[in-house]
Each structure stands twice: as C-alpha cells, then as structure tokens.
C-alpha cells in the first residue's frame, strides 16, 4: 500500500473554493478506486497550506485510478473548477509507505 500526500499552496482569500473542491474529491476519489483519508483546509497557523491524502495499492493501481478519475464527470468538472477559479497556487505530490507498522497498543492506566 502506498499513500499519496498532496500539499497545496492555496490563495487564502479563496478558502471556501478549496473546501468545495475538497468535498467534490470526497465523492470522486473513492468512486474511482482510491481509499481517501481526507482533504484538510487551513485552520490555525498557515492560511495557505492545505493537504489531500489517499492510499492505493501500488503505482500500477494509481495509474489505472488516475485514468478513471480523468474520465469521471465530477473529476473533470472539479479540475476545470480549480483551473477557472485559480485558488490553487501550487500543488506538490509525494508517495510514501508506512514505516511504523505494526503499531502497538498504548500503555493504559497510568
């Protein structure tokens, strides 16, 4: 399993547009085959940093997922929405694997 972390630099005056974008991906991404962990908008601290996180089996599955997402009507609409509204100033994507598994149970009762 690999996890894709997308770091967005967004226009802070267009946060509501980013949140709409995130909700749209909340529908399209799972439908197209990835396990969406979530999209995260600024809350405290930076007003320009946001994230999207999802997991997928491997890079071959990612390529098939991307093709389904590109053909998905909501996916197409959401991409066009982002291009038109220009609330995303920069987007960086990295793929990571979980290195800390298996996780142990925490101590209890102290």
UniProtKB/TrEMBL annotation:
One Pfam family per UniProt: NIPSNAP
InterPro entries: Dimeric_a/b-barrel, NIPSNAP
Domain NIPSNAP stretches: 5-100
Protein name stated in the entry: NIPSNAP domain-containing protein
Domain of life where this protein originates: Bacteria
Coiled-coil residues: none
Lineage: Bacteria, Pseudomonadati, Pseudomonadota, Alphaproteobacteria, Hyphomicrobiales
